[in-house]
Structure to design on (348 residues):
């Protein structure tokens, strides 16, 4: 009899972090295809991009079939080009193995098939827009077949619908590869480039988008803690005269307001710097609840303690060979303890 593989909490966390980063890169890379003018080697000034934007449905789609009210939809990525032409995209670096769960993402895409209000244009509308699904090459062929099988029955998208596969190459020169697998984009230039596929070198991500590390989906806890530790906490200890002499296992105390952590990550490490400035449309990224959850974990791991409720935290900064690996190990140990406790409870 074949035994089930032994659980690997650290490996599972690393996979989740990798999928999250692949999604960020897929959104950035696809956006770059429209945002960057290769002939001029400069940013297209007539292209506006936005992420997690709140768009209001038309009257005919303000209610779901079950009567539930829909206040707004929030696509992963939006693009406006040539003044009044649009694209709404959703990125999925991983799909569940069980195809019973595949219908939900397509229902979400179907909600974008609407005369939505709130685009960053003068009228709040666009003349027309495409709907794009970005998926990892690993499952793309299956997903295309799945969509073709249900498109006539349960999922109907009237606007141009395109499925684009992406894949990361980890060879000598790293790059992301994008290729169209279903449908045609209304933008002829990008559509032709994606017929045979387009390689975007990782150098590009470092040069133009290195600081975009979060999108409007909650990241795995170890990854979020790493961002807080390296991009917020570290910046607050650099001026400490003791910092240059800090040895391993030695600590420096840093007291931070949660709202300051939130503001620093939001302004420096999200898509916000690329957004059109329209009040009320931008999502709060990261959400405060994510920061609270990450800080709760730091307290649990004895790396911090709360001060004055949960508005202020004292963090015990110390050097680690790999901040991410350290907190992956902390989170994995917690998962393993829960599994052991559950096993003991069942046995008893």
């Amino acid at each position: 009899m074949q035994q089930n593989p032994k659980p690997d909490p650290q490996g599972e966390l690393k996979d989740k972090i990798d999928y999250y980063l692949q999604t960020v890169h897929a959104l950035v890379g696809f956006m770059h295809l429209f945002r960057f003018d290769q002939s001029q080697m400069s940013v297209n000034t007539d292209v506006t991009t936005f992420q997690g934007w709140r768009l209001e449905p038309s009257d005919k789609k303000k209610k779901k079939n079950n009567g539930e009210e829909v206040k707004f939809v929030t696509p992963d990525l939006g693009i406006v080009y040539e003044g009044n032409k649009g694209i709404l995209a959703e990125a999925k670096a991983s799909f569940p193995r069980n195809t019973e769960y595949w219908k939900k993402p397509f229902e979400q895409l179907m909600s974008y098939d609407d005369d939505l209000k709130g685009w960053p244009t003068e009228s709040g509308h666009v003349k027309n827009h495409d709907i794009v699904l970005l998926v990892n090459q690993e499952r793309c062929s299956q997903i295309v077949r799945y969509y073709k099988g249900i498109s006539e029955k349960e999922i109907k998208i009237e606007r141009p619908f395109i499925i684009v596969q992406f894949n990361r190459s980890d060879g000598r020169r790293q790059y992301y590869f994008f290729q169209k697998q279903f449908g045609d984009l209304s933008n002829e230039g990008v559509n032709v480039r994606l017929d045979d596929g387009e390689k975007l070198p990782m150098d590009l991500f470092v040069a133009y988008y290195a600081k975009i590390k979060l999108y409007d989906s909650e990241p795995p806890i170890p990854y979020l803690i790493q961002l807080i530790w390296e991009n917020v906490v570290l910046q607050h200890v650099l001026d400490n005269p003791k910092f240059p002499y800090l040895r391993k296992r030695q600590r420096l105390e840093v007291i931070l307001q949660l709202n300051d952590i939130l503001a620093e990550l939001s302004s420096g490490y999200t898509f916000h710097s690329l957004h059109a400035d329209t009040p009320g449309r931008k999502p709060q990224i990261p959400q405060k609840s994510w920061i609270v959850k990450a800080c709760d974990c730091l307290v649990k791991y004895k790396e911090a303690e709360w001060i004055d409720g949960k508005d202020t935290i004292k963090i015990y900064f110390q050097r680690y060979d790999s901040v991410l690996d350290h907190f992956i190990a902390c989170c994995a140990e917690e998962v393993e303890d829960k599994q052991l406790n559950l096993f003991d409870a069942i046995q008893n």
About this structure: Residues 9-209 form one domain. The first strand starts at residue 36 and ends at 37. The chain has two domains: 9-209, 221-347.
